[in-house]
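Figure-free illustration: sequence to structure, shown twice.
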Amino acid sequence: MSEDVVRTGVPEVDGVLARLGEPDGAGAEQWAGVYEDVHARLAATLAALDRG
């Protein structure tokens, strides 16, 4: 993860956001998969918070 990334203090969210730095230099196909995964994982985290 790059040094200028803001950490949230929530380990699950920070781990998901770290994925955004993984495909450096990758093609659009790989980025699309990363974005889909990040979106799904953040949505699941939010849903878990709603369930309390």
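We now fold a second protein in the same way, so the two outputs can be compared directly.
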Amino acid sequence: MRLSTPLLLTVLPLIAGKVYLKDTFDNMDKWVKSSVEKFDGAWELSSGEWYGDAEKDQGLKTTQDAKFYALTANFDEVFDNKDKDLVIQFSVKHAQKIDCGGGYVKVFPKGFDGAALDEETKEKYSIMFGPDICGYSTKKVHVIFTYKGKQHLIKKDIKCEDDQLTHVYTLIVKPDQTYIVKIDGEEKASGSLTEDWDFLPAKEIKDPEQSKPEDWVDEEMMDDPEDKKPEGWDDIPAQIVDPEAEKPEDWDDEADGEYEAPMIDNPEYKGEWKAKRIKNPDYKGPWVHPMIANPEYAEDDSIYHYEDLGAVAFDLWQVKSGTIFDNLIITDSAEEADSFMKDTFSSDMRDAEKKMFDDAEKEKKEAEEAARKAAEKAAEEDEDDEEDDEDDEEDEEASSGHDEL
């Protein structure tokens, strides 16, 4: 008898995205500091004064005011995002209530030497992404791509968070040439790379062979040629002598000079004469410059594509230090990045951080109020002491006077 072969059920594992760099900043082993003297800002590992989880929220912190910072890490392997998503995600906590400074990262091609990062090489990045704050006018999320050797800034204004809590910034670039920017998992901007950046020249340009005809009339209204200025119009002065003014009785011609009555606006004055306006019979409407196809335009479906991404850097200037960066991931999977955020930035952690921050603010205000009251009390006591001293002096003077008698 032929035995039947048992049915083998094969369970295929879920295909996870590939991670090219992930760091929760348990240490700084992956990171290289610039050896260039200008970029000497010192870093440390810290969770800050408020956090959701002391261990998970340890990140990379700037520690010196008015400094340039530069720190670079290489990817685990070169990232070619052809036909793949490109996802950059990290958290930023401006615990110092930053007034002017960057909170972004820069992604570089393979072979970038982080130790040699300087004024020139720091601009050789492929992508720059993240928040930037300076004063009241600049509170934006930068999304800058380098395309054919030129840096292109996003044309949209994406507002960044400006409080003192942790926020997660996510950039997703897709092979269909679309993008998404998220903050704390919530979409803040999305669209087309070709529409929201000026990567390509315009599809159409004004025909250089065409110009507005000399006899083209684009004035819809004109002065009525039959309307004439009334005779004597210009003879009416704008001001006249005040007929009610009288020379003061105490006016002295020799001392005060010849009396001149003050001038007032002439109620008969009609202003500058202007002819009536009528429809222009020769009006042809606005002239529209004819457009032609731009010979320099060429579609490019590979704008999204970077074939050799290999390093990421924090290249920053901060007036006031204290920013904490954490939970950096660069991957080809939005799902992978989202899962990482849920693990490192859960709603419970956010609530705990917010409570700890609120408690710290409350304690700070109470301490400031107590200090204010103590200063007021000390001032009052000083004033009472001065009054007591004055009274003592008066008593001494009075006693001295009686002794003389």
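Summary for the second example: The CA atoms of residues 105 and 157 lie 18 Å apart.
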